[in-house]
Design brief:
Oligomer: single chain
Number of domains: 2
CATH superfamily of the largest domain: NADH Oxidase
Helix content: 40-55%
Radius of gyration: 27 Å
CATH topology of the largest domain: NADH Oxidase
Largest sheet: 4 strands, antiparallel
Shape: globular
Strand order of the largest sheet: 1-2-4-3
CATH class of the largest domain: Alpha Beta
Structural class: alpha+beta
CATH architecture of the largest domain: 3-Layer(aba) Sandwich
C-alpha cells in the first residue's frame, strides 16, 4: 500500500523536476528564441493590408456618427512640436460637392469629401535647412483619416490631383493650403490589381 501511494507521487514530482530542467536548458541554449521574439500578426497589420484606394462609391450616405469618429482620428494625429497647423473641411452638401467637383474629376460620386489643408506659417520649421513641416503634418492627419475610414468598413482614396486655387476659393480656406482630398463612402467596387503589389522588405529596407 505504502509503495503504491508514495512511489507514484515521487515519480510524478521527479518528472516535473526533469521537465523544469529541460525547459531551463532549452532556454539557456536559445533554442526557443524564435518562439519568444517572432512578432505575431497584429490587428493593425490586418487593417493596413485590407485598406485599399476606393474609386467607386454607392449613393448611401455616411452616418454622422461615423463622420465624428473619422474626424476624431484626425484630431488625434501627431504633428511636429504639436503645433497642429492643419484643418479639415467636411464637405457633404450637394451644392458644395458640385462646386468642389469643378476643381477635380476624382470625387467618384462620393456623398462626403474630407479636405485636409495646412497653414505653413503656423508649422514647425527645421532649423538646419528651413524645411517647413506643414505638409508632413497634414499627411499624417490624412493617414489617420484613411485608416479610421477603413476600420469603419468605409472606403476612400487619397486625391492629390485638383486645382488648388479652385479648392481654396470653394471652401474659403484663407491662409490654408489644400494638401489632399478624401472622398468617403460605401465601396461599390473592388481593389485595383496593383493593390497587392509591394516591394519586398529587402528592396524597401536598409538594415545597418
Amino acid at each position: 500500500m505504502f509503495n503504491r501511494i508514495i512511489f507514484p507521487a515521487m515519480k510524478k514530482n521527479l518528472f516535473h523536476r526533469l521537465s523544469d530542467i529541460s525547459r531551463i536548458h532549452h532556454r539557456a541554449a536559445f533554442r526557443d528564441v524564435h518562439q519568444r521574439i517572432t512578432p505575431k500578426s497584429s490587428s493593425f497589420l490586418k487593417l493596413a493590408g485590407e485598406r485599399y484606394s476606393c474609386r467607386a462609391f454607392t449613393d448611401r450616405a455616411v452616418p454622422e456618427e461615423a463622420l465624428d469618429q473619422i474626424l476624431e482620428a484626425g484630431k488625434l494625429a501627431p504633428t511636429a512640436v504639436d503645433k497642429q497647423p492643419v484643418h479639415i473641411w467636411a464637405v457633404r452638401s450637394p451644392e458644395a460637392l458640385a462646386k468642389l467637383g469643378e476643381a477635380t474629376q476624382y470625387l467618384f460620386g462620393a456623398t462626403l469629401v474630407l479636405v485636409v489643408g495646412c497653414q505653413p506659417d503656423e508649422a514647425w520649421v527645421r532649423k538646419y535647412d528651413g524645411k517647413n513641416g506643414a505638409e508632413v503634418d497634414a499627411a499624417i492627419v490624412g493617414t489617420h483619416l484613411m485608416l479610421e475610414i477603413a476600420d469603419l468598413g468605409l472606403g476612400t482614396t487619397w486625391v492629390g490631383s485638383f486645382d488648388p486655387a479652385k479648392v481654396k476659393e470653394t471652401l474659403n480656406m484663407g491662409d490654408y493650403e489644400p494638401v489632399a482630398l478624401f472622398p468617403v463612402g460605401y465601396p461599390a467596387g473592388e481593389p485595383s490589381p496593383r493593390h497587392s503589389i509591394r516591394k519586398s522588405l529587402d528592396e524597401l529596407v536598409t538594415r545597418l
